[in-house]
Amino acid sequence: MDKCIFCKIVSGEIPSTSIFENEEVKVIMDIGPVIKGHALVMPKRHYDPVTETPDSVLFELYRVAKQVARAQMNGLGADGVNIVQNNGKAAGQEVSHIHVHVIPRFVGDGHHWNWKAKKYDDVEEMMELAGKLRDHI
User: Would you name the residues annotated as active-site residues?
Assistant: First the structure.
């Protein structure tokens, strides 16, 4: 993808601060971190969206994200970690190249991510939506 910023990072056209790389993925520091130490795990090949990304690639993204999370906890002293994959503009995805955010969290870091839970109108509504999902799995 000629215009994909992550493809340009993987190819070396755009500099990045890399923290890990293997044959399938590259891990870089996010230049706009939610919390300092925020890393991005991306495949070296261009895939998007998640529904079109091969299972083996998704497995490798999350396998490496687990390693990064461990490094954030052991190396940075993080108290927790958020592992997030935004998919589609409505979900907040800004770069159309699948990637996983691994964000170290510290008690009192000031970032608030938790959402306010909503409710279904009734059990029937929940059951109807569940049926639609079951029909398409």
Answer: 99
